[in-house]
Amino acid sequence: MKSNSEYQFYTALENHFSKHKNITELVRFLPFENYVSEKYNKGIFVVYEDWWIRKPLVILSKINSIIGQNKRIFARKTRVIRIDKEVADEFLNKHHIYGTTKSKHKYGLFLDKELLSVATFSGQRNLDVGRSSELIRYCTKANITVVGGLDKLLKFYEREMHPDHIMTYIDLDWGRGEAFRKIGFSNAETKEQITYWVNPHTGERSRFPSVKNTLEVKNSGSLKMERFYP
């Protein structure tokens, strides 16, 4: 028997993607009771029930992107501006599946006054590779694809901060890093799965179990990618 969340998910699929008859071959819902026992093929986008509870609009936007239904805007029409913590947090909490997190440098991609994409970076560290920084968060407004947006944000950061090396981590439940490979990033290493504990009522994830966070789920791991600068 389907849970209420699962019923809402497949109803939303039918309402939003009725023209795509094979949508259920590309996307699957993973209910709480199957978190430990069931995984799908890598070619299928798996929607965890806690994701759907927390961020249904982000999930529908991701599916839009998978089937090529997003509105496309070219980055050459946009401009990059440094943004403050409040603006970055609000955007990421609304449009990124994991919300915001700490960062030092924050940039926004704007079309006129509309914020379309956000990228946040760590402070630089002196490593064997030189001045190294991490791209911590990158996401785009729901149902929009900015063609060349990631590259434009990175180039702006590079001109300002002159890194020798940038790394980032790709959540393998969410993607495979194709956009990063296109702009010169390469695979560095695959990181092991992380165990989370989920609150079944709010969908919130924690690294530690608690009275409220009682359901165990392991992600698919992550891919560390990096880019070097001469």
Your description of this structure?
This protein is an alpha+beta fold and 230 residues long. It has three domains: 4-69, no CATH class; 70-153, Gcn5-related N-acetyltransferase (GNAT) (Aminopeptidase); 164-230. The protein is built from seven helices and 15 strands. The protein has helices spanning 4-16, 23-26, 49-54, 56-66, 85-95, 149-161, 178-181, and strands at 27-30, 45-48, 71-74, 79-82, 105-111, 114-121, 125-127, 130-140, 144-147, 165-171, 186-191, 195-198, 205-206, 215-218, 222-228. The strands form four sheets. Strands 4, 5, 6, 7, 8, 10, 11 and 15 form an eight-stranded mixed beta sheet that branches. The protein starts with a helix and ends with a strand. The mean pLDDT is 94.
The largest sheet is: 8 strands, mixed
Give the mean pLDDT.
Answer: 94
What share of residues is helical? 25-40%
Q: Tell me the overall shape.
A: globular
Element pattern in H and E: HHEEHHEEHEEEEEHEHEEEEE
- According to CATH, what is the topology of the largest domain? Aminopeptidase
Query: In CATH, what is the class of the largest domain?
Result: Alpha Beta
Let me know the CATH homologous superfamily of the largest domain: Gcn5-related N-acetyltransferase (GNAT)
Compute the number of strand runs. Answer: 15
Uncertain regions: pLDDT < 50 for 5+ in a row?
A: none
Broad structural category = alpha+beta
Radius of gyration: 18 Å
Beta fraction: 25-35%
Number of helices: 7
